[in-house]
Amino acid sequence: MTQPASNILSPDKWVDNYADYLFNYAIARVNNANVAKDLVQETFFAGLKSAKNFEGKSTERTWLISILKRKIIDYYRKINSKKGQAEVRVNFYDSGDNEGSWIEERVPQSWNNEAEKNIENEELRIQLDKCIDKLPEKYAMVFRMKTIQQFETEDICKELNISPSNLWVIIHRARTQLRSCMEKNWFNK
């Protein structure tokens, strides 16, 4: 393996050379264009701040990707922390007349008809279980461990021998498939 000849960075060319690649990398992992843009900007800022630490053992792009990976992990840690959950936006629809989101803490609450609410919650739970059962086995296992059983990320990764970024990709894909299943079988019934 040959090492790059120089450890000189060219930050003035980063946006032209790497912005699209970094954005595509980020959007595939967070599935939100605004968040992906912010993560790329944060990556560039972090790269500028730590430019003196660049040793030239990798290409600029590889170095920036490693920074971006850490930014993505930090993003998921933040939204899964108590403080970060207050800022998580809940999206119900991606497009159309119903497009929009709410801050999780401010999602409209249902009326106080307890008997109806309990029946509806039980029916919802049954439908959700059916949708989870339709997921690929690994997706269902990871989703249940993280979301329902509330295992720590590190414990799940250790147990299933996967990386944290892989875990979050699986969670994202599981949620996307669950949303689609629930829209077809619960919200449109």
Automatic annotation (TrEMBL):
Residues 126-178 form the RNA polymerase sigma factor 70 region 4 type domain. GO terms for molecular function: DNA binding; sigma factor activity. SUPFAM superfamilies: Sigma2 domain of RNA polymerase sigma factors (SSF88946), Sigma3 and sigma4 domains of RNA polymerase sigma factors (SSF88659). InterPro entries: RNA_pol_sigma-70-like (IPR039425), RNA_pol_sigma-70_dom (IPR014284), RNA_pol_sigma70_r2 (IPR007627), RNA_pol_sigma70_r4_t2 (IPR013249), RNA_pol_sigma_r2 (IPR013325), RNA_pol_sigma_r3/r4-like (IPR013324), WH-like_DNA-bd_sf (IPR036388). The keyword Oxidoreductase does not apply. One of its GO terms (biological process) is DNA-templated transcription initiation. It comes from the Bacteria. Residues 15-78 form the RNA polymerase sigma-70 region domain. The lineage of its organism: Bacteria, Pseudomonadati, Bacteroidota, Flavobacteriia, Flavobacteriales. Keywords: DNA-binding, Sigma factor, Transcription, Transcription regulation. This is RNA polymerase sigma-70 factor (ECF subfamily). Belongs to the sigma-70 factor family. ECF subfamily. The keyword Transcription regulation applies. Transmembrane segments: none annotated.
